[in-house]
Specification:
- Helices cover about 40% and strands about 15% of the residues.
- The protein is α/β, with parallel strands linked by helices and about 375 residues long.
- It folds into two domains: about 20-45 and about 290-385, Aspartate Aminotransferase, domain 1 (Alpha-Beta Complex); about 65-285, Type I PLP-dependent aspartate aminotransferase-like (Major domain) (Aspartate Aminotransferase, domain 2).
- The strands form three sheets. The protein has a seven-stranded mixed beta sheet with strand order 2-8-7-6-5-3-4, sandwiched between helices. It has a three-stranded antiparallel beta sheet with strand order 9-12-11.
- Strand 5 (about 165-170), helix 7 and strand 6 (about 200-205) form a beta-alpha-beta unit.
- The radius of gyration is 21 Å and the shape is globular.
- Bound molecules: pyridoxal-5'-phosphate.
- Pyridoxal-5'-phosphate binds near residues 100, 171, 233, 235 and 241.
- Pyridoxal-5'-phosphate binds near residues 100, 102, 175, 235 and 246.
Length: about 375
């Protein structure tokens, strides 16, 4: 013990700063700026879904559901996976409903990564990967994606693989870059993992937000499936991120391990919500129409931003758009994002915070999951700069 009343701890997660999402949203509130920083919609969700959850609550569906999730929901997801990706998964053994994709990712990493094993992540990386790896004593190995295309440089990935590599975390469509993998990437991944014990965690929460009529290449549809864990989020599809529901799909032998962590972590997920999701997913347009919906939003936002001094490549997937500001300022992205919020009234996310190493791409991430009115007001301010 030290002199203080606190017992000495060795933090499992070294990071101490507040997350950039809280910082930027706090700044947006303080300065009454339009908040395009955090990734959540600001429009209403389906009234039918809300009424369905309320109905199930009134009917008494208020107790624990099975830890793997409602069988009917798992079955409907297995059907969807078969139809969209041609993969036959066993709904009883290969799907688990989780408290959002974050918990699916956490459970998978904790179950499968051991002390000192290495996990390759692509930076900029979604912020839950590194802490999840650190909690179980694993070592994150960052491979940087660089502008303007933010493609995976497979030669570099190859050079970072060692005898300790346990997992590669892929994210397609990618937050924050808005890129998607193609067949060539899939072939490279196959070649790199062939004959190894490397697992692939494929974070596909934006599977239904692939734009310009491109197709989502899911690891579920590939012959890599036997070494894969794929994670999904209902929140991203149904515009209800606050409901924190998602699911994980993996072959039986991997799911057995993931399930052990899940069972003793959350046990089961919100019952009335799962009933309502089961009904809602009967109608496939409820998830397939999400891409055309966001296509309109992206196109609208970009048509307005054409008049600005920001430069951009249209995002291929997700509801995020990267914007380069090198024509406007020499500042670091963190400084510029702060000033943009305080002086110009629009909050965004500086992408350097998603990299472990210093990075000066001069890129900001804007979320376009907003009403047209919000997008119009934000673009008007951004075009004045
Ligand atoms: C790439 C990525 N993975 C996972 C998640 C987490 O999803 P959920 O809100 O369902 O936990 C997000 C949310 O922003 C994300 O962008």
């Amino acid at each position: 013990m030290t002199n203080s009343t606190h017992i000495k701890l060795q933090p499992k997660i070294p990071k101490t700063q507040e997350s950039i999402f809280s910082v930027m949203s706090g700044l947006a509130r303080q300065h009454e700026a339009i908040n395009l920083s955090q990734g959540f919609p600001n429009f209403p969700i389906s009234q039918e879904l809300i009424e369905s959850v309320s109905r199930y609550m009134r009917q008494g569906y208020n107790q624990y559901s099975p830890a793997k999730g409602l069988p009917a929901l798992r079955e409907i997801l297995a059907d969807k996976i078969m139809r969209l990706y041609g993969r036959k998964v066993n709904p009883n053994q290969e799907i688990t409903i989780t408290a959002g994709a974050t918990q699916a990712i956490f459970s998978a990493i904790v179950a499968l990564v051991r002390q000192e094993e290495e996990v390759i992540i692509f930076e900029p990386a979604y912020d839950s990967y590194v802490p999840s790896i650190q909690v179980c004593g694993g070592v994150p190995i960052g491979v940087q994606l660089k502008g303007p295309d933010y493609k995976i440089r497979w030669e570099e990935v190859k050079s970072r693989i060692s005898s300790k590599t346990r997992m590669i975390i892929l994210n397609t469509p990618h937050n924050p870059c808005g890129t998607i993998i193609d067949e060539k990437d899939m072939e490279e991944l196959k070649a790199i993992t062939k004959g190894t014990d490397i697992l692939v965690l494929s974070d596909e929460v934006y599977e239904h937000i692939v734009l310009d009529e491109k197709k989502h290449l899911s690891l579920l549809g590939s012959d890599l499936f036997e070494r894969c864990v794929c994670t999904y989020s209902f929140g991203k599809v149904l515009h209800n991120t606050g409901w924190k529901t998602g699911y994980v799909v993996a072959p039986d032998y991997l799911m057995k391990e993931i399930y052990k962590v899940h069972e003793y972590n959350v046990f089961s997920v919100n019952t009335p919500v799962q009933h309502a999701l089961t009904d809602f997913y009967q109608n496939e347009s409820n998830y397939l129409e999400v891409a055309p919906f966001y296509q309109k939003k992206r196109d609208y936002f970009l048509s307005l931003m054409k008049e600005s001094r920001f430069t951009f490549t249209p995002t291929q997937g997700t509801y995020f758009q990267l914007m380069n500001y090198q024509n406007i300022s020499e500042e670091s992205d963190v400084e510029f994002a702060r000033r943009l919020t305080i002086e110009h009234g629009v909050a965004s996310i500086p992408i350097s915070v998603f990299y472990a190493q210093p990075n000066d791409e001069k890129m900001l991430r804007f979320c376009f999951a907003k009403t047209d009115e919000t997008l119009q007001k934000a673009a008007e301010k951004l075009c004045k700069i």
